[in-house]
Amino acid sequence: MLTTLTLADLTARTGLDILGHIEREVTIPVTDGIQAQGDLLVIPIALLAVEKSRGWSWRNVSIADPPRWHWVPAAGIEALRAGTGGNPHTLVADPGTCRWTTGVYDPERLALGALTTTGIAYLIHPEHGGSGIAPGTYLIRRQRERSGSTPRFSSFPHAVDRVQYIVD
Amino acid sequence: MGLWPLAARLAALEDGLRSRLDARIRRAAVAWPGSWGAGTGTVSMYGPEDAVLSGISDRSVVAVTAGQSLRGTLIGAVVAPLRAALGQAIGEDAEDDRLTAADGTITFRGQHDAAWVGYYDIRRRSGFGGYAVADLSELDAWAALARSAGWWWPGEGLCVMAERPVEVHTEPLAGSHHGELRLHHADGPAVGFTDGFGANVLHGTPVPEWVLSGPTVDRIRAELNIEVRRSAIERLGWDAYVRGAGMALVASSPDPGNPGAELQLYDDLPSKGWGAPGRVLVVTNGTPEPGGDRRRYGINVPGNLDDPVGAAAWTYGLTGELYATLVRRT
User: Which of chain B's residues have a Cβ under 8 Å away from the Cβ of A81?
Assistant: First the structure.
């Protein structure tokens, strides 16, 4: 699926719901860069595979070896089961074009998974509409916030602020 | 042990059983060195199927799914607020009810004992077993109780039993690939009994009743518990809170990928507890609400971040430079 779609096309194909007030006739923008859908962030994995010298135990984002990819079916898969109300972010693509895995090592511990696609993949959410992902390999991270009173600053990469994960 | 109160004897029996079962589990782990046992932290990052397909031993997966995740849901999410609410209701500090001292109440959790009974039972049914036969029948007795009872308190010739709650409202725990839940209900108690007793919980945070019915800036500022404060601010609304509390603006900048929206970084009010105050990043949703306006909300960030874009980047584990290249936010 290398032709772009409108939100109306996508909801018709997948049967997924979008809230009524969101504009449907506009083509869903497609990008190969970093983009956000609510509290989810889609990041080209190549941008993360940069050497960072944070100490001897720092490892970069990597996909499990051997990788365990699952094909994304036409009906899509849920990238994130959301909190209240249960509105999920759903990843959809033409069958046979996009694969997904939860087997990802993320030093920031924010990764939900990774996707690799040869066609355009879409992330759909009832409150946020659709986001187009160009062919490539990407990491999907969720968002965190600081929780608790004392952050710890240390060169040891695993000493991080107490964090809380954010949901829509 | 024969002179101990009945409850203490039963608790000792339970502890003995669990210790013996744990010892058998450890012995079995040593005897099967072939599969790759992984730490629970690693396993938690995978969904159960992915973990097994990646070569992680099925025992490690069961330890996370049926052990850690179940325990997190039942004990962390459900039992903890109930215990706190019960303690408050009877006016004593219910920090540790598994006391072995002569005074102190030992509570047996009935259905919530599924947190440990379920784990040992699933291991047995999965064929990892290795338990002693006598222990199996003892486990079955606890399982029968977990299947049928609410909380119970045994005494000499008398056992007080509580009914189970009639309502329990949960939501999935964000980031859990293993089905872990937490309590949440905005319209009343998240777990409630027929006599009206219950616990109010918002997104896993036990909160006092005023958070649900009447959050105000003054009540929020008077609240010592940072988690309760955060829940109450969400209920009141961040803009109302920032205005009402008079928080100082540190910096603002355009929001990458979100035309027309600003990122605003505020100094949080000094917390009444210990620790350096953090900062709050107030952001605007990329997509409008049904009414047309865009919801604003605050995210707590570390106090050493001075740049709004850097603060936004921190929430995703990125550098400010990378986050500034964000193409589109919906």
Answer: 172, 174
Q: Tell whether B316 lies on the interface with A, counting CB pairs under 8 A.
A: yes
Question: Does A47 sit within 8 Å of B322, measured CB to CB?
Answer: yes
Q: How many CB atoms lie within 10 A of CB B258?
A: 21
Q: How confident is the model at residue A58 (pLDDT cuts 50, 70, 90)?
A: low
Residue B161, min C-alpha distance to chain A (Å): 33
Q: How many CB atoms lie within 10 A of CB B274?
A: 7
Give the three-state DSSP class for A77. strand
CA distance A44 to B90: 55
Long-range contacts of the stretch B318-321 (C-beta < 8 A, 24+): B318/A34, B318/A41, B318/A43
* B residues 28-47 lying closer than 8 A (beta carbon) to A: 45-47
Q: What does pLDDT average to in each consecutive run of 10 residues of chain B (330 residues)?
A: 82 93 80 59 71 77 84 87 81 47 70 92 83 91 93 90 93 74 90 92 89 91 83 87 90 95 90 73 87 83 94 94 95
Among candidate residues B89, B85, B88, B83, the one with its CA nearest the CA of residue B106: B83
Task: Measure the CA–CA gap between B43 and B214, rounded to whole angstroms.
Answer: 41
CB contacts, 8 Å: A37 with chain B: 286, 329-330
